[in-house]
Design brief:
Blueprint: E1 5-11, H1 16-20, E2 28-30, E3 36-40, E4 43-51, E5 58-65, H2 67-77, H3 84-94, H4 96-104, H5 115-125, H6 130-144, E6 147-151, E7 154-157, H7 162-165, H8 170-173, H9 182-193, H10 198-202, H11 208-216, H12 223-233, H13 244-254, H14 261-272, H15 276-296
Helix pairs in contact: 3-4, 4-15, 5-6, 5-12, 11-12, 13-15, 14-15
The protein binds a DNA duplex (13 and 12 nucleotides) through helix 5, helix 6, helix 12 and helix 13.
Length: 297
DNA sequence: TTCCAGGTGGCAT
DNA sequence: ATGCCACATGGA
């Protein structure tokens, strides 16, 4: 077992609050010192950002990790190889409305999470709110997931795999409080195991269309959840998930009728192209920030 | 109390 | 193909 230490990485376009609080992931918690502790790929780490003298670069500090994990896990998880400055510049030029939204979430990055965990997380997310989604996922992992480590006195557990979930009954899941979604998880776990999880794993390298069709075949996954999985775990950056918030923001800013998801989808394709999913995150974050500010006043 | 949440499955047209 | 509606749970 290699000794864990702290890794320091120069980053730009990077804000932990925005990355972990923009609805794409549910497993990171803010510590009292402002850092975030969470788990991904069965590894528990703590992250904080130090601002340098030189304004435009920052240092990401990852505690409780190894150089190997930085290289093999965190660089990809945090999408550090992608040039978000260039993408933001391009999107701002294309669309003035989006330009404003981007200014609210300059530090957002799209994570590349584990496909299975993302499948489960977003099945749970349907017709549900973010605090409760987090609770459900934490309950599920604590009850049936593998112990992954301790940090600052707290225990962390991985998402149980399909081989574990396929054997559970709805009664087993009752204490998790998933509601009617419990049976969807069990059904989906069984389906994924039909080919030993290979189609799901290979979906990262498949075309977006093929991956989308496969995801739709799973119980509890419709168009919106499928697009979230494509975007947040498979690097399909053009995927444009349309949920209640995006409907709201597309209606308010672009005057597209609230219920016309087809028009929103085609607008995104035209205006945002291959970065539709990134644009969607800026819009999602923006409308939620506006609502939050409205609620306070 | 009623409404709502990162929607989908099932059923009727 | 499209339009309803039920669905568990908990916070506002």
């Amino acid at each position: 077992m290699e000794l864990k230490s702290e890794a320091r990485i120069k980053v730009s376009t990077f804000d932990l609050v925005q990355i972990f609080d923009c609805g794409q992931c549910f497993r990171w918690e803010k510590e009292t010192d402002g850092s975030y502790t969470g788990i991904a790929y069965k590894k528990v780490v703590n992250m904080r950002v130090e601002t340098d003298e030189n304004e435009d670069m920052k240092t990401l500090c990852i505690e409780n990790t190894t150089p190997e994990d930085v290289k093999n896990v965190w660089t990809r998880y945090l999408d550090l190889s992608r040039d978000y400055e260039a993408i933001k510049g391009e999107l701002k030029q294309k669309d003035e409305i989006l330009s404003v939204a981007i200014s609210y979430g300059e530090g957002i990055r799209i994570l590349q999470q584990e496909p299975w965990e993302t499948v489960i997380s977003f099945i749970i997310s349907q017709n549900n709110n973010i605090p409760r989604i987090k609770k459900c996922i934490a309950n599920l992992c604590e009850a049936y997931g593998e112990f992954a480590g301790n940090y600052r006195g707290k225990s962390y557990y991985a998402m149980p795999g399909p081989e574990i979930m396929a054997k559970l009954t709805e009664a087993d899941l009752a204490p998790i409080k998933l509601g009617y979604r419990a049976k969807y998880l069990i059904e989906t776990a069984k389906s994924v195991l039909n080919d030993n999880g290979e189609t799901l794993i290979n979906s990262c390298n498949s075309s977006s269309e093929a991956a989308y069709e496969y995801l739709l075949s799973l119980c509890g996954i419709g168009p919106k959840v499928a697009h979230c999985i494509l975007l947040f775990s498979m690097g399909k950056m053009e995927s444009f998930p349309i949920d209640v918030w995006v409907k709201r923001v597309m209606n308010q800013l672009y005057n597209i009728p609230e219920k016309d998801a087809a028009a929103m989808k085609s607008y995104a394709q035209e205006a945002f192209g291959q970065y539709g999913g990134i644009a969607q995150q800026y819009l999602f974050y923006y409308i939620r920030k506006l609502e939050e500010e409205k609620g306070k006043s």
